[in-house]
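Budget justification note: compute hours in this period were largely spent on complex prediction jobs such as the one shown. Inputs:
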Amino acid sequence: MRGRVLSACFILCTQFAHAAPVQPSQAQPNNDLMSEDIYLDDVPKVLTVSRLSQPIADAPAAVTVIDRETIRDSGVVDLPDIFRLVPGMYVGSNGGYIQSTNPVVSYHGMTDAFSRRMQVLIDGRAVYQPLYGGVQWSEIPLAINDIERIEVTRGPNAASYGANSFLGVINIITQHSSEASGSSISLTHGNGRNEAFYRYGGRVNDLSYRVTTGYREDDGIQNRNDFKRTRILSVRADYQATNRDNLEFQFGYTGGDREEGNVDLDALVFLPRTKQLYNHFEMVQWRRSLANEGEFSLQAYHSQDRSEDTVVSADLTSLLPFLATPRLKVNNDVDSERYDLEAQHTFSPLKSVRLVWGGNVRQDRTTAPFYLGSGSTDYFNLQRIFGQMEWHPLSKLIINTGAMVEHNDFTGTNISPRISANLRITPGQTIRLGISTAVRTPTYLEEKFKSRVTIATINPNISYLRQYFFDDGNLDPERIVSREIGYLGTFGDFNVDARIFYDTISDLIQQNKTDSFVTPPNFVRVSARPFNYYNVGTSDTRGFETQVQWRITPATRLIGNYSHVRIFGHEGDLERNFLQSAPSNTVSALLSHKFNPLWNGSLAYYQTSATTMLGDGNQVDLARHCDARLARRLELGRYQGEVSATVQNLTDERYQEFADYNTMRRRAYLNVRLDF
Amino acid sequence: MYLRNKSGFSPGNASRLVCLALLWILLGQSLNALAVTGVTLLVGEPSVAANEFIEQLRVELAQTSNAKLPLNVLSLDKLSADKLSINTPTGDDSLVLAVGVQALSRASQLDSRVPVLGVLVPRPSYEKILQDSKRNPRNFSAIVLDQPFFRQLALIKIILPGTTSISALLGPTSRDSLAELKRAANQQGLALQQANVEVASQLLPRLKQILETSSVLLAVPDPLVYSRESVQPILLTTYRYQVPVIGFSQAYVRAGALAAVYSTPRQIARQIVEELMLFDSRPRNGFNAVQYPKYFSVDVNRQVAHSLGIELGDENTLSETLLRMERSMR
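Corresponding output:
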């Protein structure tokens, strides 16, 4: 394919020579002459509105940008680990119970197994799952090497990122396909983890594409049943239809095996077993550049996450008399589909004003017989319109304001407005004042779970019933009002971002035992009262956080983060643990250095104070660990690449993450990457 | 904006142009103010840029003391090689203006006594044609599309005042200007980092290598490095490294380069008319050596600047500052 690019260039620079018949008598054919076209012809617009990121000093909220350099230097092997470098964010590995052998990522506490108060987008596609609200990180069809950058908005920003952009937003942007040319192989071998990825990028005229395939096996945490075997296929193609029209196509597939179930959590029904995954998505986006820095985009995607999980219980005859069969079988298959269509229009009606507005419709179709207590498919519809304005009334002042109006099947119509002012006090220093609101729609777990198992007895008219959840539904959405004062300073190669925040969350949704459950006739209940979810009250989250980036020398860079967060009960009957669910102090730092053009290395430090996690989690003590990475660039003829060694938890601290059963140990990985 | 709309330019338009030119000749009576008694415009494949140039040439000529200089427009695609040699003047009192590389290449095959001035041609192409045709630069010269390096570097110093070093990615064609670029950078106290690209597959690896330590990338025209196909990966990659690009055309700025200094066909037409006057004043001395554009414009991409956190003045102020700097340097 590179041959084709070459020949395309060749044709381009020789087309004039071919256009006129060249005299045979001519001694020198002039086909190596550069045509004037490259000076005079129009070329496609590349850095369009949607490709350009807003400077952090102009953004309406606190933003942490993680670029490829940081991802590489951090040595992360598992994507969620990168979020340890975001101030206020908690990341914990978890070999949990059902649907929770998955890393936990949360911002400002309220941490349970399913990060359900954060929005996660990949190239504008929402990947949080409707069932539990979280993200199954290892099931995303995404190779770390395909990531262009990650923008983490710290705080709510519904007006920009839509529903559930509640405590924070993780926005992952993948590389444009034209940036991947040729082949690239990456092999990783290490403690409990092996990975092989192959990527090919090519171009045919105005169409560029990349295909990434990979296989990963991950043993997970020691002594936990959380083995993961994952096959990944990810395809992206970008077609430059005209100088102002771009079409982008994406397809991704993840399949594999997940081990789940731990006897310390459930020794009777959800025993250790392996389930199968079949996830895929398809996305198409059309972007047109308009005059006056405008753009129109239309995006449609479909995704399907399907898992097959047949649960066979332990022999229950010693516990329950008169059983029809000694072992119970539960169909725990889950099939979630999402259809989403979004249109967005950006334009500048005045030189000092930029407007973005648009609309979005979505349907989630969920089939989960065990969780929903029925084999039929449940439909969740969502429509929203949004608008936001960036206004520069003075050269030193930026007002960002916007709102989103959302209507959905669970909570009806809600509106989330936002306003902020960024004042540039000196050329390198900005103060930001902002108020932002968002709502969080309850997840299926909170609104519609009716999970139960029925156990047949020898009397066909009577069954045992174990009811896990019995949601009443009709919950109000959680609402957040976030107020902040931020400061951004740039002093040469030193950048600092600091803010104090005061967030109020009302109509907090919490889990409790329900009294309203009535055992149906012909059933004998063999469990305690089932769980239900309630709007229980209001809490305040207050604190301070800062991030520092310092390029000490051109070859040395330091990133430092600190956050202090406290949650206070404000009203209502909040769980006691809830108030301890945010680590009061979090520290992370990454020091990277380029020794010479061949060698580079980095050191990372992470510390989280004692925290009580919610849901399946429990209290974990102060955790700290250090990671180190050493890499050497390779240059073997036409092969270029890198070989690197990463050691996580260098000093082998035996600390816990998320729950007392997840004990972390030292791990080392070796990675070789070759591009050719 | 130089939208080249090949399909939209019908042969009918071209012939209309030729007719107009003939009409011009018929109307032309007095031929005494300029030593040049006629100009034959040799035009390659029709293009928006060439049309703009011709149009402006007429306007500019009309404002000179000799408003009735005959202008004979010959389109290459209408003529065979033999016809070309018959129809073009060979006397000392007329010259050929070759518009574009293709036309200049064909003009180099004319009788070597015919003075030829190339316009809308890249400098490397002019030099190659000159070398291959073994013609004398005194009567085979050009006003090239390239901007002098000192002008581009001065622009960098104006919009990015703290810059101490620049980077350039050179290909087989632009490699020849390395020495000149180095000299110009030296003169302005800028260090130059440069990488060479031999084949297209090296483009991105070399670019990434050089961007690791770059603060600004100067795009030096080269068909292998800066093609329609490569504009996307180059601008995306430089943006990822947050390195601004100084382009060589307005289109490149629109695509995503931070800024460019360039000359429009109209500006070149203005310079050509001045050159014709000079040719008149020194009829036996011939042309000046190859010339850079005298008139130029500056264009900036404000969105890109904003995103990179760079504050820019307006385009007019920038080009005026640039002009002042150039005058003070001389």
